[in-house]
């Protein structure tokens, strides 16, 4: 699950997706994406629907979210 601003920023970078493209794909404003990333290592304060929309858009771009000891991301292996 997407939990921090840094995790969001890393996921977006791995997927090669600009903030504006992620905003469009998730149905949110680019300001919302910027504000989420600005949280840095802090837990996201956005609503569940917002976080879920961003996570689904990034998962559609091939990102997997890792939440073991610390939040992380990786690209899904290609088949």
Automatic annotation (TrEMBL):
Gene3D superfamilies in UniProt: lambda repressor-like DNA-binding domains (1.10.260.40)
Domain of life (superkingdom): Bacteria
Record field: transmembrane: none
Domain HTH cro/C1-type: 8-37
Entry protein name: Helix-turn-helix transcriptional regulator
